[in-house]
C-alpha cells in the first residue's frame, strides 16, 4: 500500500516560491488500479516524480508497504518495489531490447522468456528482440517496450506518467488493451496512472482528481466521470477540467 501524508512541494521562481503540491494526503490500496487526473498545472506529474523520488518534498511523508521511503533515493525506491514509466521513454543507444529486459528483470532471462514479455505488450518478438532501443523505434514501440520492462520487474507499484503522450491512435488502442490485461491480473500489486484520457479513466478502480496541488475529488469512474465529461455535450476531459 502507498500512503502519502501532508505532502508539499514548491519550485523557485523569480517572484518567489510557487506551490505545486499542497498538504496532499492519499492512499492507494494494494490490488488497485488508480488513475490520477486534473487540469494542466494541478501537480499530477510532480506527484508521480515525488513518489518515485525524482523530486524531494518540502514536507510530508511517503510510506510504502508501511515503510517510510521519504528520504530514499530513486535506486532505493526501485529496490523497494516501485517502477516508473516516463511520458517520453528513454532511448538507450547500443542496448538491445533483450538486454534491457534482462536488466529490468535483474537476471539473465532466456530469449524465450524475454520474447514472452514482448508478446504480452503486442509486439512480434522476433522483430524486436535483437533491435537496439534507439531512434529507429517509434514512440508507440518504445512505450510498449517500456511497459514490457515493468512487467519483467514484477514490482509492487507501477507508476505511469501520461502513457498516451506522443503515440498514434493504433498504439493507443493497444495501450488500452495492455492496461486492461494488467488490471485483470492485479493481485497484491498496484498500478497508478497519470492521465486525462477517458478510455484510461473508464477502466480505473478509482479516480483521483487533483486541483491546485490537492485531491479535489476521488471515487469510482461511475461517480467521477459524469462530472468530468458532461452528460450531454461531447466535451473532452481536458476542456472540462480547465
The CATH homologous superfamily corresponds to P-loop containing nucleotide triphosphate hydrolases
**Could you report the average pLDDT, rounded to the nearest whole number?**
86
Order of helices and strands: EEEHEEHEEHHHEHEHEHEEHH
When the domains are counted, the total is 1
CATH topology descriptor: Rossmann fold
Order of strands across the biggest sheet?
6-9-10-3-11-12
Topology:
Layout: E1 2-13, E2 16-28, E3 33-37, H1 44-52, E4 59-64, E5 67-68, H2 74-80, E6 82-85, E7 92-96, H3 97-105, H4 111-120, H5 125-128, E8 132-133, H6 139-153, E9 157-161, H7 169-184, E10 190-194, H8 198-202, E11 206-211, E12 214-219, H9 221-229, H10 237-241
Parallel strand pairs: 3-10, 3-11, 6-9, 9-10
Antiparallel strand pairs: 1-2, 1-4, 4-5, 7-8, 11-12
Helix pairs in contact: 3-6, 4-6
Characteristics:
242 residues; alpha/beta
3D structure, described in words:
The protein has 242 residues and is α/β, with parallel strands linked by helices. It has a single domain, classed as 3-Layer(aba) Sandwich (Rossmann fold). The protein has helices at residues 44-52, 74-80, 97-105, 111-120, 125-128, 139-153, 169-184, 198-202, 221-229, 237-241; strands at 2-13, 16-28, 33-37, 59-64, 67-68, 82-85, 92-96, 132-133, 157-161, 190-194, 206-211, 214-219. Strands 6-9-10-3-11-12 form a 6-stranded mixed beta sheet, with helices on both faces. Strands 2-1-4-5 form a 4-stranded antiparallel beta sheet, covered by helices on one side. A two-stranded antiparallel sheet has the order 7-8. The longest helix is centred in the last third of the chain and has 16 residues, at 169-184. It starts with a strand and ends with a helix.
